[in-house]
Amino acid sequence: MDYKIREIHKQEYPLLDNFLYEAIFIPEGIEPPPETIITSPELQVYVERFGESKDDWGLAAEVDGKIVGAVWVRIMNDYGHINDETPSLAISLYKEYRGFGIGTAMMKEILTLLKSHGYEQVSLSVQKANYAAKMYLKIGFEIVKENEEEYIMVYYL
Fold first, then answer.
1. Where do the N-acetyltransferase domain residues begin and end (predicted)?
2. Residues 6 or more apart from 7 whose CB is under 8 A from it?
């Protein structure tokens, strides 16, 4: 599958709401939550006023002119928060585009971008049952904390 990874444009920031919803891990056999769940304060930290902070960075994956995925970071007090110098990462890809290496390519691009801007590390939170946890480990993220349901992972740049 031909795809392009590029910087997300300001007029595309509203799409982050869609990708935030897509990023919610829904285990097999569980009913998906309503899309309005993304309006909750603990999820709004990922997208609210994105682009207004110097620590907001985002990339989009494009196939045939359509944005099919996004990866973005910001320093926020989210599930994967480590400290106030470490951006937290969110990544999402529409289901039909998973399994083609696009997610891995987006991750590698955002890590390169962050390193080039002087960040020392990036963090994320992922549920243990989420297949993406294996991808993060393969890329080089390390588990720094865990509870019953999720890992907090860090990638040292």
1. 1-157
2. 58, 59, 60
Pair of tokens at residue 65: 């002119």
Distances (CA, A) of 157 to 12, 90, 116, 121: 27, 17, 9, 5
CATH number at residue 140: 3.40.630.30
Structural domain range at position 98? 4-156
User: Looking at the 3D structure of the chain, how many domains does it have?
Assistant: 1
Task: Show Cβ contacts of residue 148 under 8 Å, excluding neighbours closer than 6 positions.
Answer: none
What the block records as the tokens of 104 is 């891995």
Q: What is the pLDDT of residues 40-68, one digit of tens each?
A: 999 999 999 999 999 999 999 999 999 99
Both tokens assigned to 94? 């529409």
Task: Using CB atoms within 10 Å of the CB of residue 21, give its burial: 0 to 12 exposed, 13 to 18 middle, 19+ buried.
Answer: middle
Q: Which residues pair with 148 in a beta bridge?
A: none
